[in-house]
Specification:
It is built from ten helices and seven strands. By secondary structure, it is an alpha+beta fold. It folds into two domains: about 80 residues, Orthogonal Bundle (Arc Repressor Mutant, subunit A); about 120 residues, Beta Polymerase, domain 2. Strands 6-5-4-7 form a four-stranded mixed beta sheet, sandwiched between helices. A three-stranded antiparallel beta sheet has the order 1-3-2. Helix 1 packs across helix 2 and helix 5 packs antiparallel against helix 7.
Length: about 210
C-alpha cells in the first residue's frame, strides 16, 4: 500500500511518520505502546510497525518488550536528535505542545487549532504554514492564554497566535470569525467538558466530510 507523502515536512516520508515522531520526540523520557502510536497517528498497525522499524534501524528510537507489549521511546543520544526534534515539533508537534501548554487554563472549555497549519495537518494541500492559529473557547484569563501561547511558541519554533471566543459565540455562529473557522478544517486538542467535546468533534468530522 502506497503511503501518501508528508504534507508538512517534505523531508519526512509521510504524515504517519511525522505524527509518530512528534509523539515520541516531544518528551524523550516517555514510552508508548504500538497501540497508542496507532491511535495517535490515525493509521494501521502494519504501517506504524514499519515506520517504527525504520526509525529504530536509523537509531532515532529504541524499543523494548515488557511482557507482551512492545514499548517505543525516542533515543536522545542520537547525534541528530536535537535537529530532528525541532523540525518535527515545528511541523507535527503543535497538537501535543498546544494541548500541554493550554490544558490547565481555568475557564478554557476547549482549544482548537485552525488555519493553514490545521489544513495541512488534516490533508489539504497548500503552502507551508508560517504560524500556528489557536482558538480558546470559554472565558479564560487573557494573560494566562498569552503566557501559554508564548510557551508553545518557544517549544514549536513558530509564532503562536491565540484568539479567545465565548462558548455562546461558537454555538450561535453570529461572529464572522467563528463562521470562517467552522467552514474550514480545524483540530480539537483540548476539551474540559464532555458536552462541548461531543459537539466540537461532530462539527470537525462534518466539516472534513464536506471539504
Amino acid at each position: 500500500m502506497k503511503v501518501p507523502p508528508s504534507s508538512l515536512a517534505p523531508i519526512l516520508r509521510s504524515d504517519t511518520q511525522g505524527r509518530i515522531l512528534a509523539r515520541l520526540l516531544t518528551d524523550s523520557t516517555k514510552s508508548y505502546s504500538m497501540s497508542e502510536l496507532v491511535e495517535w497517528a490515525g493509521s494501521s498497525m502494519p504501517t506504524v510497525q514499519r515506520e517504527v522499524r525504520r526509525a529504530e534501524d536509523a537509531g532515532i528510537v529504541e524499543t523494548e518488550r515488557v511482557g507482551p507489549t512492545r514499548l517505543v521511546r525516542a533515543n536522545p543520544d542520537h547525534p541528530l536528535f536535537d535537529a530532528l526534534r525541532q523540525i518535527v515539533l515545528a511541523t507535527y508537534g503543535p497538537p501535543i505542545v498546544v494541548a500541554r501548554e493550554f490544558a490547565d487554563i481555568d475557564g478554557a472549555d476547549a482549544v482548537l487549532l485552525f488555519g493553514s497549519w490545521a489544513a495541512r495537518y488534516l490533508g489539504q494541500p497548500g503552502r507551508a504554514p508560517n504560524d500556528i492559529d489557536v482558538l480558546v473557547i470559554g472565558t479564560p484569563d487573557r494573560d494566562e492564554v498569552d503566557d501559554a501561547a508564548e510557551r508553545a511558541e518557544q517549544a514549536i519554533g513558530l509564532p503562536v497566535q491565540a484568539t479567545v471566543r465565548s462558548r455562546a459565540h461558537w454555538s450561535t455562529e453570529q461572529d464572522s470569525f467563528i463562521r470562517e473557522i467552522r467552514s474550514r478544517p480545524f483540530l480539537v486538542v483540548v476539551t474540559s467538558d464532555p458536552g462541548i467535546a461531543d459537539d466540537l468533534h461532530a462539527d470537525s468530522h462534518e466539516q472534513r466530510n464536506t471539504t
